[in-house]
Amino acid sequence: MRIAVTTSNGEKVDQHFGKATRFDVYDVEGDEMKLVETREVTSYCSAGGQPVADHKFSSDRFSTVKEKLEDCEKLYTMQIGEKPKEQFDIIGIAVQTCTCSVDKIPGCSGKCK
């Protein structure tokens, strides 16, 4: 399974989906994880390099991020808004909110400490 992780440092799921400027992409098989690559993005909550003040859903901004994650089956993120989550569900990418260490993801149930 290919997954994407919102992380600032590659060690912990510590980024809100909308503020993430990178997604680490892993191939996961059982308990084994292999980093495929880090994909840089303009965060969903910014437009033209500036933060977006409102939190209204934008299909244009979402599409930009979605294109980077289309080959993933699951997204692990600290937090995500309902509309982006719904859109990921529609395109077949499951979303798991958590705050665990990246190496703990294979056993993550979202009840991280």
Number of helices: 2
Level of helix content?
10-25%
Helix and strand string, N-terminal first? Answer: EEEEEHEHE
**Total DSSP E strands:** 7
* Residue fraction in strands: 25-35%
Q: What strand line-up does the widest sheet have?
A: 3-2-1-6-7
Unreliable stretches: none
Oligomer category: single chain
Shape: globular
Distance between the termini: 24 Å
Nearest-angstrom radius of gyration?
Answer: 13 Å
Would you tell me the overall average pLDDT?
Answer: 87
Note the topology.
Blueprint: E1 2-6, E2 22-29, E3 32-40, E4 46-47, E5 50-51, H1 59-69, E6 74-77, H2 82-91, E7 94-97
Parallel strand pairs: 1-6, 6-7
Antiparallel strand pairs: 1-2, 2-3, 4-5
Structure description:
- By secondary structure, the chain is α/β, with parallel strands linked by helices.
- The protein has 2 helices and 7 strands.
- The protein starts with a strand and ends in a 16-residue tail after the last strand.
- The model has no long low-confidence stretch (mean pLDDT 87).
Give a brief description.
The protein is an alpha/beta fold. It has 2 helices and 7 strands; from the N terminus they run βββββαβαβ. The chain has a 5-stranded mixed β-sheet, with helices on one face.
Can you give keywords for this protein?
2 helices, 113 residues, alpha/beta, five-stranded mixed beta sheet, two-stranded antiparallel sheet, 19% helix
